[in-house]
Write a structure and sequence with these properties.
With 217 residues, the protein is mainly alpha-helical. It contains eight helices and three strands. It is elongated, with a radius of gyration of 25 Å.
C-alpha cells in the first residue's frame, strides 16, 4: 500500500491516493507527496552506474548572502532548539492560574487575589512578543507559512488572546477598583478573562495536535 506524506505537517497517510484534505493540518491534496522506501530504491539502483560516474572537481561558486539571511538564520535556530514550545508554556501555564484568581475574587472576595491576577497577566503580556515571534518563526520555517484551516484558527485564537490580555492589563491598571471585591465591573473582568482563557486553550490544543498527533493515517 502506498504512503503519502503531507509536506506541511509531515502527516503520513496510507492508501492508493492521498486524502482530499490532511486530517491533521487541513492542507489540500496537492500538498501530499508519495513516500518511497529508501532501502528498496538503493537496492534496485545499479551500482555500476554509480561507479562509472566520474568525479569532477570544480571551484565552489561564490554565494551571495541575501538581505534576509540573518532573519532566516534566527528562525532556523528557533526551530532547531524548539524555542516556541518552550516559551509558549508561559501563557499556557500562568493564564489559567490568573483566571482562577479572578474567579476567587468575584465569588469569595479578596483584593490580594485581584492584584495577583493583574501582576500575572502583566508578566504574561511582557513575554508575549517572544512567544509570538517564535511562533511566527516556527510557522514560517517548519510549516512554510501555510494558511490551512488549522493555522487560520490557531493564529486567530492567538491574536484574540493577546488583544484581550492587553485589554485586561490596561483595564486593571487604569481602573484598579475593578479588581476590588465589591466592584460592579469584576464580573465583566472575569467574563473577558474566560474568553481569553478559551482562546489560549484553543491555540495550545492546535499546537499540541501538530506536534504530538499520530503521523500515520
Amino acid at each position: 500500500m502506498k504512503k503519502w506524506e503531507c509536506t506541511i505537517c509531515s502527516y503520513i497517510h496510507e492508501g492508493d491516493e492521498p486524502p482530499d484534505e490532511c486530517p491533521l493540518c487541513g492542507a489540500d491534496k496537492s500538498e501530499f507527496v508519495e513516500v518511497k522506501d529508501e532501502a528498496i530504491e538503493q537496492a534496485t539502483a545499479a551500482p555500476e552506474a554509480v561507479a562509472a560516474t566520474p568525479t569532477v572537481t570544480s571551484p565552489a561558486p561564490q554565494k551571495t548572502m541575501p538581505a534576509s539571511a540573518p532573519l532566516h538564520g534566527i528562525q532556523a535556530l528557533i526551530d532547531k532548539h524548539h524555542l516556541h514550545p518552550i516559551t509558549v508554556h508561559t501563557p499556557n501555564g500562568i493564564i489559567p492560574m490568573a483566571v482562577f484568581f479572578v474567579f476567587l475574587l468575584v465569588f469569595f472576595g479578596s483584593p490580594s487575589l485581584g492584584k495577583a491576577a493583574l501582576y500575572s497577566y502583566t508578566f504574561v503580556l511582557l513575554s508575549m512578543p517572544v512567544v509570538l515571534f517564535t511562533g511566527y518563526s516556527m510557522w514560517k520555517t517548519r510549516y512554510r507559512g501555510a494558511m490551512t484551516s488549522l493555522f487560520k484558527i490557531k493564529i486567530t485564537a492567538s491574536v484574540i488572546a493577546t488583544i484581550l490580555l492587553a485589554t485586561l492589563v490596561l483595564w486593571g491598571f487604569g481602573q484598579p477598583s475593578v479588581l476590588e471585591p465589591n466592584s460592579s465591573g469584576r464580573a465583566a473582568y472575569l467574563f473577558f478573562s474566560l474568553i481569553m482563557l478559551a482562546a489560549v486553550g484553543i491555540a495550545g490544543h492546535l499546537g499540541g495536535k501538530l506536534i504530538f498527533s499520530s503521523r500515520k493515517g
